[in-house]
Design brief:
- By secondary structure, this protein is an alpha+beta fold.
- It folds into two domains: about 80 residues, no CATH class; about 130 residues, Protein Transport Mog1p, Chain A (3-Layer(aba) Sandwich), CATH 3.40.1000.
- The strands form two sheets. It has a six-stranded antiparallel beta sheet.
- It is rod-shaped and about 105 Å long.
- About 20% of the residues are buried.
Length: about 230
């Protein structure tokens, strides 16, 4: 059903339709109804009631600014998640970089590097042996490992450098130190950095194993340390 000019004018006033968009005959009814409604608001001669105020240029500009900012916020939010999707992926380069700060004394020689088959729960193990001219006792090797870990991951910054008690160590382990750091990107996954000292069959031989693992998973004891 087609609206009469009076009905269309009333609708335009009720729903803040711009007067400029109306036909001339509807504008006339619009002006008449607006005058009647203004007269019904005592003491409001200088100001129209809120529902009768037409959108001004600054209001239209403010609305446009609001929607532009909302769109930018959505794009920024999507960009953050895109960065998270890239930066929070664990890979062996990430874990190798986590072990790199742990520098053992020059008498140790890296002999093997092993890693998980895939990076869903990554782990990387670097095994070193003592190759110095003199022998290395287990207690001296434990001291080497502790100081190397403390220098790489200072407790004042990373919270703690802890040693597992004997009952929690893998079989054949003399000492075991570990710390935890937050994973890459913006996620809350943790990376465990752990160091073991083991005796070899030789009376004065030792093996040092450094492990970096996502979610602090220890492949030697098959447990999570955090």
């Amino acid at each position: 059903m087609r609206l009469t000019p009076k009905q269309e004018a009333a609708y335009s006033l009720d729903y803040a339709v711009s007067r400029a968009d109306l036909k001339p005959e509807v504008q006339a009814e619009y002006d008449r109804l607006l005058a009647e409604r203004r007269a019904a608001w005592p003491g409001q001669a200088a100001h129209d009631p809120p529902e009768l105020v037409e959108p001004t240029d600054w209001l239209r500009g403010a609305n446009a600014y609001f929607w532009i900012m909302m769109m930018l916020a959505v794009l920024a939010f999507a960009a953050v998640f895109a960065v998270m999707a890239v930066n929070t992926k664990y890979n062996y380069q990430t874990l190798r970089a986590d072990l790199d700060p742990v520098r053992l004394p020059s008498g140790y020689r890296l002999v093997t590097v092993s890693q998980s088959r895939n990076c869903s729960g990554c782990w990387l193990i670097e095994t070193s042996t003592w190759s110095g001219n003199d022998g290395r006792t287990a207690s001296a090797a434990c001291s080497d490992v502790y100081h190397a870990m403390a220098a790489a991951y200072p407790p004042s910054h990373y919270g703690s450098l802890e040693g597992n008690p004997p009952q929690d160590m893998p079989a054949g382990t003399v000492c075991d130190y570990f710390t935890v750091k937050v994973g890459p990107g913006f996620n809350f996954t943790k990376i465990g950095i752990e160091a073991f000292v083991r005796k070899t069959q030789s009376a004065d031989g030792v093996i040092v194993q450094l492990i970096a693992s996502s979610d602090c998973y220890n492949p030697l004891s098959r447990t999570a340390d955090c």
